[in-house]
# Entry
Amino acid sequence: LREDDDDKDTDSESEEEAETLPPMEPDEVDEDGVEVFYLREDDDDEDTSFLLTQSESQAKADLWHQINRAHLEEWKIREKERRAKRAAAAAAAGKAPRKKAKVTPASSTAESVKIALAKSSSWAARTVDAQSLESLFED
# Structure
């Protein structure tokens, strides 16, 4: 058989399958002419058959980790090397390693905005009136 003959066989099979399925009517057509289909309760049983249970999901994850163990170890090594390079470059440049910024928790939205403005050096930080800001977030 030639390759073209194989393609014809698979095409005719898929055409036959397509002919046996009833055409679906859209639930609505939006303003742009796009057909919209909604899931129905009777569709739910069909869809949930493809979902994994917790134990199946765990087994799949364990299998994936087992198969990709070498890659995972290589990724960890590369990440350590990247961090070491960054630290060495920072030390060579005389810079201290970066520290994570401390986050100050705010008790309200207005206070959160005040903190953000205080950290900012923009003109808004200097021109926003505190009372006006409070009034924006009152209930």
In short: The first strand starts at residue 28 and ends at 29.
